[in-house]
Structure formats: structure tokens, C-alpha cells
UniProtKB/TrEMBL annotation:
Residue ranges occupied by any NAD(P)-binding domain in the UniProt entry: 7-188
InterPro entries in the record: NAD(P)-bd_dom (IPR016040), NAD(P)-bd_dom_sf (IPR036291), NmrA-type_oxidoreductase (IPR052718)
PANTHER family the UniProt entry points to: NMRA-LIKE DOMAIN-CONTAINING PROTEIN (PTHR47129:SF1), QUINONE OXIDOREDUCTASE 2 (PTHR47129)
Organism name: Paenibacillus oryzisoli
Protein known as: NAD(P)-dependent oxidoreductase
Amino acid sequence: MSIVITGANGKLGSLIMKQLLKKVSADQIIACVRQPDKAEEYLKQGIEVRFCDYDKPESLDQSFAGASKLLFISSSNTDDTIRLRQHAHVIEAAKKAKVEHLLFTSFAFPGKGLISPTHLYLATEHAILTTGIPYTFLRNALYTDFVGVLGLDAAIAGGELSVYPGDWKFNTVTRHDLALGIAAVLTESGHENKTYELTAPHSWTFNDLAVALSDLSCKPVSLRQNPQIQNWIYGFLGKINTSSTSSDLEKLIGGPVTSLKESIKQFIAT
Ligand SMILES: NC(=O)c1ccc[n+]([C@@H]2O[C@H](COP(=O)([O-])OP(=O)(O)OC[C@H]3O[C@@H](n4cnc5c(N)ncnc54)[C@H](OP(=O)(O)O)[C@@H]3O)[C@@H](O)[C@H]2O)c1
């Protein structure tokens, strides 16, 4: 069995590699990377490293050769028209290489999203379905990292978390938990032709965030809804489904996802 992983140098990819190494031997894993000079750690661990650039289809044929399972991590390009082409290259190459099982990191509840990335994820899923390759769609929730743009340190300093008004609910998770779940899918049998919504099992609110900030800082932090607030993130959040939840990730992990309080520690200075 060889598990081939694209985007293996990325933040999610490297966490998945770490979890995989706990479950299978290094000679069963192949790391596909765009910058092989940044993958020396993998070589040292006995992992084969292959050059893989979604913009260079010829590189993909060799990258995916012999893959029993191919984990395709979605491109990080910010232009979704370019991403669509890149994703098509990956899917065509997977078909040519006769990959036995294609797993794709999609986005949670994409059918309810109204922005270009959600259309892109759905289009990619459909393209994968056309190949007839057994698939698994790993629909990742928004990373909890988004809290980093909400001004958490300022909220602690001023005792007030100011947010745009609305009935906001969040199903976010950490990359670490996603990596645990995805590594489980990659190393277990029985996940072919399944779609997993890898979200938190219960949504959290901005009030929960204010409480977590108070707990972590040992200072009172209240929540204030402020219609004057200027932050691009609210336009984005309002157009994706951040409220629907699923127990898929906890089932795959075999335990609870990381708590909100624990997840946000790395985004505050205190
Ligand atoms: N769920 C969410 O909240 C969320 C948020 C942001 C992004 N995403 C999506 O999830 C993916 C993984 O997230 P992440 O945090 O690991 O992102 P990341 O750290 O930016 O990693 C993206 C990986 O994709 C690789 N890549 C980009 N363009 C490529 C190309 N043309 N050919 C081959 N590889 C290419 C990058 O290679 P290099 O290492 O060479 O740059 C990198 O390893 C992202 O790519 C994006 O599609 C999800």
C-alpha cells in the first residue's frame, strides 16, 4: 500500500504526515511537494519525496504513480478559476495513474455556500465523481484560525469583544483535529465513496468566545455587537455555512475535538 499526499509541505499536509507516521511505516507514505528543497525532513524520516506542481500536469503523472490512496489537498491559489484548472490537472493525472482511492479535502456544507470557493469545491467533487475512482470527500470546516482577525488581544486589553451584529454560529475545528481524522480515514478500510462533514459536533457563538477569552486572561471580557465595525471577515462568514454541524470528525477521531478555549490559546499573547 502506498499513501500519496499532495501539499505535504503545507500546514494541514504536514500535520497529516505527522499523524500518518504514527500509524504506518515511512516506506508506505509518499510526500508530493511543490518545493522539494523544503522537504528534507521527510527524506530524513525515510519518506519518498516527489515533485508535484498542479500547474505542471507532466509532474503529476510521476507523482501519483503506484498510489493506492491519493490524498489530494486542495490548491491554495487565491484565484478560483486557476484552482479549477489545477484541480482538473490533478484529477486527470489520478485517472491516468489508475489511483485506487482518491481522497479530496473539500469544504464543509459547500452546497449552502454562496461564494466562489464553495462552487469550486463542489465542482471538484463533481469532477472526481466523473472519473469513477472510489473517492472520499473530506469536507473540512473553516479552521478556527479565523479568530485571529477578530482582535482578540485588543478585546482582552479593553475588556470587550466587539463583533458585527448577527446570530453567528461557528462549526470550526483546528487543523490538528482534521489531521487526526484524515489520517484515520487514510489508514482504515471502509471509507470509499463516503462524504464526511469534518466540523465540530456543536457550534459555538461569539459569546462563547468572549467567555473563553475571560477564562484564559483571567479578566472580564464582555461581548458587544457593533454595526459600525469594519472587517472583511464578516462578509465572508455571512456567505458560507458556519453553523451546521456533524459528528463525523469526532467519530473518526474516536473522541472529542479540541475545545474552543484550547484552540484559541495560540491566537492570544496572554
Ligand atoms: N478550511 C479552511 O478554513 C481553509 C482555509 C484556508 C485554506 N483552505 C484550503 O485547504 C488547503 C490546505 O490548507 P493549509 O492550511 O494546509 O494551506 P497551506 O499551508 O497554504 O498549504 C497549501 C499547500 O498546497 C500546496 N500548493 C499550492 N499550490 C500548489 C500547486 N500549484 N501545486 C502543488 N501544490 C500546491 C502548497 O505548496 P507549497 O508548500 O509549495 O506552498 C502547500 O503545501 C489550502 O490549500 C486551501 O485550499 C481551507
